[in-house]
Design brief:
By secondary structure, this protein is of the alpha/beta class. The chain contains nine helices and 19 strands.
Length: 370
């Protein structure tokens, strides 16, 4: 039915072929009340191109249910999205974190320009959204941000996390609700998700054990298009390349992409956790953390930061901010201001390109400079 390629953030793009059956089953599950919760009464603005895992399957779900579908055309600008939301009565929208960070910056610059009273929820995927940003949309506009996790290989929906996902959570405090939203979420009906160690032993779901996240189910790829890559599939499981925990409530907590984890002195540092904490600082527009080689520690983290217009970077303040929740050895060795952070075609931070750029610039960590 369709063929999409992975965005190539960690290697050569790989083709994933979708069938009519896999897409139909994915569409049914995505449309469930406890999933996206779409209905024929919704007006949907999907800020997701079709080459990004078939627009996250939203065009099919919306067509089946009879939703109004609003298309932003090629004009991927926050003002365009906000104008469409207001004029077309958008109730639900979907996009990657960089989209919602741009929309937030526009709203903060002119908070009374747009009426978002009809908008009820936004889905965010592609990479982990900062918790601070999710709370900001709720506090300012009463808009629920739903975090989703998936991949091109999962068609793409694998998990979703909402403020209240179980009946047992009714009555939870708002802080407890947002603790759940910060996680990648619960598996969709019809899918199995597990974490494994290096010997392919299943790890406990205790919120502490960290392992290779694997997934299988009716709409999960079992091979790449004309490209076997057996190391990506094991005993019926898709090996996602994500490192994760599963807590006792069965929430998936993504630590990082395995190739983006930073190994320093034999211990792992999550680049995603550092990035989301840095982005929560006032004045910071974007942040990316990548590993750089070190002769003693193997790798050390370096943070690249884009500041909002009119804000100045205070590198010491960033380190101090991070030290509030990270151990000293996990802190970035350097915080570097940059005009832009390269993104993939699907709006994810392109860490492969960042590492290549630093290599081209002969970057060295501070304690290695002559």
């Amino acid at each position: 039915m369709g063929l999409c390629y992975t965005s190539g953030t960690t290697g050569k793009p790989k083709g994933v072929m979708y069938t009519n059956r896999s897409t139909y089953l994915h569409t049914l599950t995505e449309s469930l009340t406890d999933s996206m919760g779409l209905s024929s009464l919704d007006s949907l603005l999907g800020i997701v191109p079709m080459f990004h895992a078939m627009g996250w399957g939203l065009p099919f779900a919306a067509s089946m249910l009879g939703c109004k579908q609003v298309m932003p055309h090629r004009f991927m600008l926050p003002d365009v999205f906000l104008k469409l939301m207001q004029e077309e009565g958008v109730t639900v929208s979907a996009g990657v974190p960089t989209i919602w960070q741009g929309v937030r910056a526009t709203l903060e610059a002119d908070p009374d320009k747009y009426d978002l009273s009809i908008l009820s929820r936004m889905t965010c995927g592609g990479s982990a959204p900062p918790l601070e940003m999710m709370r900001w949309y709720w506090d300012k506009f009463n808009v629920e941000m739903i975090q989703g996790w998936g991949m091109t290989e999962t068609n793409p929906l694998g998990t979703l996390s909402r403020k209240v996902s179980k009946r047992s959570q009714i009555g939870m405090s708002e802080d407890e609700q947002f603790e759940n939203v910060a996680k990648a979420g619960l598996a969709m009906a019809g899918l199995e998700i597990e974490i494994f160690d290096e010997e392919w032993n299943r790890l406990p779901h205790d919120g502490e054990a960290v392992g290779e996240l694997c997934i299988k189910g009716a709409w999960i790829a079992s091979e790449y298009f004309n490209d076997p890559q057996p190391d990506k599939f094991h005993d019926g499981w898709l090996v996602t390349g994500d490192v994760a925990k599963i807590d006792p409530e069965q929430y998936i907590i993504i630590s990082d992409r395995s190739k983006d984890l930073i190994k320093s002195g034999g211990e792992w540092i999550s680049s995603v956790d550092l990035e989301n904490h840095i982005v929560a600082m006032p004045g910071v527009a974007q942040a990316a953390v990548v590993a750089q080689p070190h002769p003693k520690w193997d790798e050390r983290p370096v943070a690249l930061v884009v500041m909002n217009e009119g804000s100045e970077l205070n590198a010491d303040a960033v380190i101090e901010h991070c030290s509030s929740i990270f151990a000293k050895w996990q802190l970035p060795d350097e915080v570097v201001e940059t005009d832009n952070i390269p993104l993939t075609s699907t709006g994810k931070i392109d860490k492969k390109a960042i590492r290549a750029r630093l290599k081209d610039e002969s970057y060295q960590l501070p304690d290695l400079r002559g």
